[in-house]
Amino acid sequence: MPLPTRRWFLASVGAATAALAQFGSAALAQVRALGAPVSGYGNRSRFERALRLFPQTRTPEATASFTPLGESFGIITPSALHFERHHSGVPEIDPAAHTLMVHGLVERPLVFSMDELKRMPSATRLLFIECSGNSSSEWLGAGAPSVQRTHGLTSCSEWTGVWLSTLLRECGVQAGASWVLAEGADAARMARSLPIPKALDDVLIAYAQNGEALRPEQGYPLRLVAPGWEGNVNVKWLRRIEALDGPAMTRWETARYTDLTPDGKARQFTFVMDAKSVITDPSGGDTLRGPGVHEVSGLAWSGRGAIRRVDITTDGGLTWSQAELQPPILSHAHTRFRWSWRWDGREALLASRCEDDTGYVQPRRQDLVKERGANSGYHQHGIQVWKVAANGAVTNGNG
Ligand SMILES: Nc1nc2c(c(=O)[nH]1)N[C@H]1C(S)=C(S)[C@@H](COP(=O)(O)O)O[C@H]1N2
Ligand SMILES: [Mo]
Fold it and tell me: 152, 169, 177, 360: which has the fewest Cβ within 10 Å?
């Protein structure tokens, strides 16, 4: 690549020289004053402003908050900014009193305490959790003004716990068992059914997130994490697993979390989150400082596996250029991509398109609507377009 950044670099050197000249003895004296003492538990700088956003609703216990993806770096979501979706608020659970019961079609029903679970062989995985309602605002075109509101119902954490397969083997699953029901201890007693092959494959019963205990909002002290599957099945405040000979047909897999199609029928048990990507920088609400080189960066993920490729367009999909994927590139985790864009200062339609390692390519939003209609509600994973105006203002460009 030639050196497109040269002018930008020279301008920065000029600014730095000016700043150094202003850096007088008063500033130096301040730098030498004693700082704050040590503390038992860290907080971010008071100058940082990124927050989860949530709509004001009549029942704030039964809503969602959105991760500020536009202000995110790398692939890990800080636990304090992980999106939240609660159907009946965050229960307060004493881990010393909490248990997980595994029963139903098993040889030996067992009740596990938190201490017993933590003594068992553990596993750690970096995994995204995405609500299947993420981007539902975009089914009909430009629905939300910022990437936080269009895509902020996905987050990525490092989760540690016990494999569900380990617990099921302890209990001895009977031959007739084909599904398991997972139930939470919140007021809603939210519960979802999972087919046994998934339960025995890669489902984690997690007690830790990003190196410490789960946050209460994420299910403290125990949650289910089903890699790549819709957020709703990742049951929080987990208290019960029941082996069954079919799905339990709870209200969260019948009245909710089914996807209405144009013929009036609904798709049910649409577990897998399809490959999806979005440019987080620049994104809706940003303003480009002027023509020249801009680093375009964003996130891609797939419930089917790992991201293999991301392409970027600046002309609404007429031409595409391959972005760079930043390691680590992990299955069922956010992957960060970046691309250097020399903006000519004219109106642009900026978008990313990803492909996963099964060869699945993220569809255009219009093609998804053509196939599923506009009333699916869930699983909107189409390409997100950002419109860059000549004055640098970035807005939602979904047409
Ligand atoms: N017990 C229980 N589990 C739950 C929920 C809930 O309300 N209660 N919400 C579900 C939904 S819809 C989603 S998208 C994810 C959100 O997980 P998070 O709040 O940790 O981001 O949790 C799921 N697990
Ligand atoms: Mo969700």
Answer: 169
State if residue 87 touches ligand 1 by the CB under 6 angstroms criterion. Answer: yes
Q: Closest ligand 1 atom, CA of 82?
A: 21
What is the Å distance from ligand 1's center to 218 Cα? 7
| CA–CA dist 124, 80 (Å, integer) | 19
For the Cβ of 236 lying below 6 angstroms from any atom of ligand 1, the answer is yes
Q: Is the CB–ligand 1 distance for residue 229 below 6 Å?
A: no
Q: Is the dihedral of CA 303, 304, 309, 315 positive or negative?
A: negative
For residues 159 and 258, give the distance between their C-alpha atoms in angstroms, rounded to a whole number. 27
Burial bucket for residue 361 (CB in 10 Å: 0-12, 13-18, 19+): middle
Chain-centroid distance, C-alpha 316: 25
Closest atom of ligand 1 relative to the 133 alpha carbon: 14
* Binding site membership of 85 for ligand 1 (Cβ less than 6 Å): yes
- Cα–ligand 1 centroid distance for 235 (angstroms): 6
Assign 28 a pLDDT band (cuts: 50, 70, 90).
low
Question: Which residues, at least 6 apart from 92, have a Cβ–Cβ distance to it below 8 Å?
Answer: 216
Ligand that comes closest to the CA of residue 130? 1
pLDDT value of position 5: 44
Give me ligand 2 centre to Cα 231, in Å.
5
132-190 pLDDT tens trace: 999 999 999 999 999 999 999 999 999 999 999 999 999 999 999 999 999 999 999 99
Q: Are 263 and 372 in contact (CB under 8 A)?
A: no
- The C-alpha atoms of residue 60 and residue 53 are separated, in whole angstroms, by 12
Query: Averaged over 238-267, what is the pLDDT?
Result: 97
Q: Where are the domains of the chain?
A: 60-142+152-264, 276-396
Ligand 1: which atom is nearest the Cα of residue 185?
Answer: 1
What confidence category does residue 4 fall into, taking pLDDT thresholds of 50, 70 and 90?
very low
- Arch. (CATH architecture) of 276-396: Sandwich (2.60)
Quick one: 318 exposed, middle or buried, by C-beta within 10 A (0-12, 13-18, 19+)?
A: exposed
Q: Which of 87, 127, 217, 251 to mutate to test the pocket of ligand 1 (most atoms within 8 A of CB)?
A: 87
- Bridge-partner residues for 64, per DSSP? 85
